[in-house]
């Protein structure tokens, strides 16, 4: 919780405004210097647009940054173009010239790293339907780069190998038309989150392999690391095992051994297990995991034919 708040306030609010002011107030000695500053600011804004988590700050704030960026670039260009251009070959590579270049290169390299997570690894993938009906939903974590999906750390760290099945998982919350996912910034009542109690439908047809229904819903930001999946349903579908986790206490309408059809109600979103706030955790994994299902091999997934990554929007099925 504190980490997301810090990243939002500093990385997605204060730093963009500081960089825009830096560009706005700049008086540049050459067009190259102006271009490097504009590129650095643009690269940082593109990076936070892709890798930022837009839960506490609304995503439409990016449109405001874009407009301010254009105004800042135009203002600094008008001031700078009145200066005498430097003759070719006399541009000195000093700190004022190099600092925006270093920032631009770093941001662009990190941006391309994050965008690499938009492409799933080669191999079979699970094609799923949306687990929701109606409403608008937001993917908080998803994709195939650790910059946009922290679940990926379970694939690379040996100490987390017991949970590697979730490496390509999605974390999904519900949003209203104003971009809010809760009534308040970080309420302690799980019922204040829009997704809490949202009906969850089977994203594929299959048999219920595991189901848990008796764990309590935590009050944010409390979590239960001893039972990471919380209340959950694991479906043995045709091409993969599919886990839907952090469900509501006593909300399941299925039990182990049941057959469910795609679109059948299986439970409701809660806040059980290792969950800091109400959301649905969805992932696919290769078959044959046995009892230790969280240690299975992860499988890429598509929902309604789409590759979902951080900041993707998902509509509930009709």
Describe the structure.
This protein is of the alpha+beta class. The protein folds into two domains: 117 residues, no CATH class; 190 residues, Glucose Permease (Domain IIA), CATH 2.70.70.10. Helix content is 28%, strand content 19%. The strands form three sheets. Strands 2, 3, 5, 6, 7, 8, 10, 11 and 13 form a nine-stranded antiparallel β-sheet that branches. Strands 1-12 form a two-stranded parallel sheet. The longest helix has 23 residues. The two termini are 33 Å apart. The mean pLDDT is 91.
Taking pLDDT < 50 over at least 5 consecutive residues as the criterion, the unreliable ranges are none
Q: What is the end-to-end distance?
A: 33 Å
Shape: elongated
Helix/strand order, N-terminal first? HHHHEEHEEEEEEEEEEE
Task: Please state roughly what percent of the residues sit in beta strands, choosing from under 5%, 5-15%, 15-25%, 25-35%, 35-45% or over 45%.
Answer: 15-25%
Number of domains: 2
Helix content: 25-40%
Q: CATH superfamily name of the largest domain?
A: Glucose Permease (Domain IIA)
- Supply the CATH architecture of the largest domain: Distorted Sandwich
* Biggest sheet details: 9 strands, antiparallel
CATH fold call of the largest domain:
Glucose Permease (Domain IIA)
Gyration radius over CA: 23 Å
Output mean pLDDT.
91
This entry's quaternary arrangement is single chain
The CATH first-level class of the largest domain comes to Mainly Beta
